[in-house]
């Protein structure tokens, strides 16, 4: 936007077009050129100006400079020009008033937005604080106490109570060299975050059930600050579906042996201890199961045999040959 | 004399116009700056 445009408009006295100019979206800010100089500057050379007006402007410039004073002959023309300038003055005043009004409206709006955003920020920070308090409390009380403090305000109370009834903690001993934060519990999980907490050098990983959003169970896994070989998993909620490997595990549960995995179950998980114990040692169980299957009948071989049998029974030539052989055997034996 | 008074009045009005124009320029700058904060 050129300042000459603005100046032209100011002379053009088009109030609407000026308003359009200041309300136009993405309009660059006006240049910081100040309006200094004579009245002659106001008149752009491109704008159509009457000869009479030009003379007047020249005259006024001379008057301002104090160089000369010529008598004005056409008083009527001067009066007309004065009227025109007065009306221009009036319109400029109106424009200024409107602009001031717009400015104050915009300023109020901006202040409203600023206060809203600050409120939102405060609420968010309070939420984050409450959440971190909850997690730190859960980690401190590893040996079973999952009680949450309920001294917070009412809005934070309800979700905490909900979690209080369904949260459970499981500690699993793993190889200290294994840096992955994976606790195999028979369910499938999707990792959606990881963060480093203040009270523990090892990061905390966040998982949600692979059946989400229909199943809202979440899990947080972190190495114990005291013993890095222990993985602490905190479960929130209960699965509303069967574990994918549950049937398989229940079949082989009588044969499974806990090979050194130290398992400790707290709070609500304790009631279902046998199931959870089996879940937690799933790798061991699978190993045991597969070794048993290797001794008795390897699943691959069994599968191949079944495939072969089914394909042969579908073959009519084979059926005929088999029938002939059997009947031949029968005839031989009778003879 | 009358024309002298007219000229004087015109000078006054012209100066006033100039002032108003300057004020409008400044207000425009302020307004646009404020609006750019919003966007």
Automatic annotation (TrEMBL), chain A:
Question: What SUPFAM superfamilies does its record include?
Answer: WRKY DNA-binding domain
Pfam families in alphabetical order? WRKY
Which terms are listed as keywords in the entry?
A: DNA-binding, Nucleus, Transcription, Transcription regulation
- What name does this protein carry? WRKY domain-containing protein
Lineage: superkingdom: Eukaryota
A GO BP entry is: response to salicylic acid
Q: Where is the WRKY domain?
A: 185-244
* Cellular compartments annotated: Nucleus
UniProt-listed InterPro entries? WRKY_dom, WRKY_dom_sf, WRKY_plant
User: What Gene Ontology molecular function terms does this protein carry?
Assistant: DNA-binding transcription factor activity; sequence-specific DNA binding
Question: Cellular component terms, GO, for this chain's entry?
Answer: nucleus
**The organism of origin for this protein:** Carpinus fangiana
Q: Does the keyword Nucleus apply?
A: yes
- UniProt key word Mitochondrion: no
């Amino acid at each position: 936007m050129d300042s000459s445009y603005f100046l032209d408009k100011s002379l053009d006295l088009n109030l609407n077009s000026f308003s359009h100019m200041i309300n136009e979206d993405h309009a660059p800010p006006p240049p910081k050129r100040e309006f200094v100089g004579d009245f002659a500057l106001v008149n752009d050379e491109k704008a159509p100006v009457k000869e009479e007006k030009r003379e007047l402007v020249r005259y006024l410039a001379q008057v301002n400079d104090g160089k000369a004073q010529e008598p004005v002959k056409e008083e009527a023309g001067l009066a007309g020009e004065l009227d025109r300038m007065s009306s221009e003055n009036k319109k400029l005043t109106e424009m200024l008033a409107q602009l001031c009004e717009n400015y104050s409206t915009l300023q109020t709006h901006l202040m409203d937005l600023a206060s809203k955003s600050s409120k939102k920020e405060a609420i968010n920070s309070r939420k984050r604080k409450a959440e971190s308090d909850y997690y730190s409390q859960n980690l401190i009380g590893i040996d079973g106490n999952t009680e949450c403090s309920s001294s917070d305000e009412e809005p934070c109370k309800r979700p905490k109570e909900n979690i209080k009834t369904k949260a459970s903690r499981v500690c699993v001993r793993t190889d200290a060299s294994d840096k992955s934060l994976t606790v195999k519990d028979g369910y499938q999980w999707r990792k959606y975050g990881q963060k480093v907490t203040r009270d523990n050098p090892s990061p905390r990983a966040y998982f949600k059930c692979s059946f989400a959003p229909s199943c809202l169970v979440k899990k947080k896994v972190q190495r114990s600050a005291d013993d890095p070989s222990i993985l602490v998993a905190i479960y929130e909620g209960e699965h509303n579906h069967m574990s994918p490997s549950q049937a398989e595990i229940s079949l082989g549960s009588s044969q499974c042996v806990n090979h050194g995995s130290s398992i400790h179950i707290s709070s609500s998980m304790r009631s279902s201890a046998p199931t959870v114990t089996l879940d937690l040692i799933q790798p061991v169980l699978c190993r045991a199961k597969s070794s048993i299957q290797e001794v008795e009948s390897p699943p691959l071989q069994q599968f191949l045999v079944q495939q072969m049998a089914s394909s042969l029974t579908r073959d009519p030539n084979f059926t005929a040959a088999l029938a002939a052989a059997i009947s031949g055997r029968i005839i031989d034996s009778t003879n | 004399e009358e024309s002298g008074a007219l000229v004087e009045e015109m000078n006054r009005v012209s100066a006033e116009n100039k002032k108003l124009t300057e004020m409008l320029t400044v207000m425009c700058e302020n307004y646009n700056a404020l609006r750019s904060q919003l966007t």
